[in-house]
Input
Amino acid sequence: MKPFVPLSLLSAILMSAGVAAAAPTTEAPVGFSADELTYDREMKLIIARGNVTFTQNASSLKADHINYDTVDGAVIATGNVEIYTPDGGLMRANYAKVSGDLKEGLIKKIRYTLADKSVLTAKQAEHVQGNFTEFDDVAYSSCDFCEDGSRFWEIKARRMTHDKNAQTMSARDATVTVADVPVMYIPYFSYPDPTVKRKSGFLLPGFKSNRSMGAGVTVPYYWEISPYTDFLFSPWIATKNVLLSGDLRHNFSAGTVDIKGSYLRDGNRDRYNVEATADWHITDVWRARADIDRVSDDTYLRRYDIRSNVYDPWLKSDAAVEALTESTYFAFGGALYQNMRSDVNDDTVADAVPLMRFSHATTPDANGGYWSFDASSAVLNRKLGDDSKRLTFETGWHLPGITGWGAVYSFDASALASAYRIDNYFIEEKGREFSGTVGAFNPQASLKVSYPFASVGEKYSQILEPIIMGVAAPNSQNSDKIPNEDSNNLDFDDTNLFSEKRFTGVDRFEPGSRLNYGLKWGMYGKNGGSVSALIGQSYRFSKSDIFPPDSGLVEQASDIVGRLSIAPNGFLQLNYAFRMDRHTAELNRNDVSLGVGNDLLRVSATYINLQSRISEYSAYNTRKELNYALESKLTRYWKVKFNQQINLSKGGGVLETGGYVRYEDECFAFEAGLRKDYTYDRDYESGVTFKMGVEFKPFGAFNI
Output
């Protein structure tokens, strides 16, 4: 018996509809099952009636009636024709006929449900010359059918052709309808068939408006340069200017390269940005990487809405060669910084080239103890101000464990040695410059012990855990001849209460012996939900002037820090962190995050209150800020949100107000949003931004 050939035609149709199906070979066996199966010797036909199932390869066909010509392999299927494909698709038709040579075929009144649940219908599909499949009176949509048989949106075309060799789909006399109302007519368009993952061509246009650019249109063009390289060109043509942007990507066997950028001419100024990443895995151990982030001027990214993280005070570009094993890390490279703040002189920003880091940890011994070794070097140069060269080495021995009576402990002993070459460093306390060589040495040892008490009940369990940590260190002071380059923003809180080193870098260290102690408690439900709390304090055995006056660590006995977390269920989540003056009980820090509600109404808020932060260790001053949002899923498809950011400090006010309304179902999404920005930065002016987006799934979105 000759093989069943229509499945090759069906494979072409399925690919044209967005689903790939493998065509059977001429040697593939066929199988029948039916209520009634007969053979007409005169016509040489196999005739199957009633619940007929025809299979070949991984595809199957069902129909009320099938005639199979054993001479030329032609198949005629009628009555409730159903064709199941290996990827989960289902095609329904009234009639299907295919010739045995695979060159001709016809299927009538098609309704094809793709694997993503979108549906293509056509009056008929004809397979011509083994390559072309032509559809007549086509309608496609990802929307569900309404009770009256209509769909919210459809793409209708007089004829659609699938060129299998060229891997393209082309449509003639195409119309986009919304609620049966024609909204766009396209006489002809072509696009890659679903078997093509990438192909050069124009993408969906978009609409954007911006205070600096005005209203305009984006016309993206995708260029497949090679199987491993592509380029996306996205010009924004607006009423006030034209902004050019692009993204070049290249993949190779051992890594990737991605280069993004934008450019416009603003009056007599060329304004641009470059953002690039490169990653090369040289071996299983060695890799080279680079991250470039540069911009022509401070306000360009924000003024022209290039990207969202435009409030960063610095842009960092760095590159390094790295090696990583289970126990060792090595890196050699450098970093360049670009200042984005108006109150900082660009010439005072340092370039860190070169930078080196080496870390190694030995294999734990039988008791769990191990050695660690760290070495680093840095060279910092400025156009204006001090330059420095630094070499550091640190070694330590670490022993974590649990005693026989259940106490959890960790012992750490370390020594840090640093050597500096300083040029032109102005010491404000002494009112003079220093140039020369200086060193620092800081040994210390610490022992942290906790003893958890557990109570297990039927509905919940509790854990009460007292913690104490002793740190022994000499009371040597930090040298005022060493600039502080990497140990800024010291803030004592619950996260570093039990840290050996509260400074983030090596330019500053915490002198003197001290005790850190606290109490931790938690209650955990059997079915989820929890409540936990931590409170603690640090006590120093000697005074030190290394800490800024607002750090909470100036006195021998520190401020009291703590945290409370409440999450009994999905309806309520509360986190509260604080730092309290031990004398006055005044709260020097409040940090609150709250989420309460359900899908019908959800309230989320964050509040932060930091007292004066004016010091060489901090990048910000007194800060009181509230962010809150109200969000509601009104129905299955409709969602609204309102949010506001408020500066509660003296002289502050509302920073930003915004909101949106969104509708989304299985095939269509609509969103409209409004945002009012009350801030300004040099040539960036505050204003109202309105955005609207419409998405026709799965084709993409039109954004205004």
Summary: The chain is about 0% helix and 60% strand.
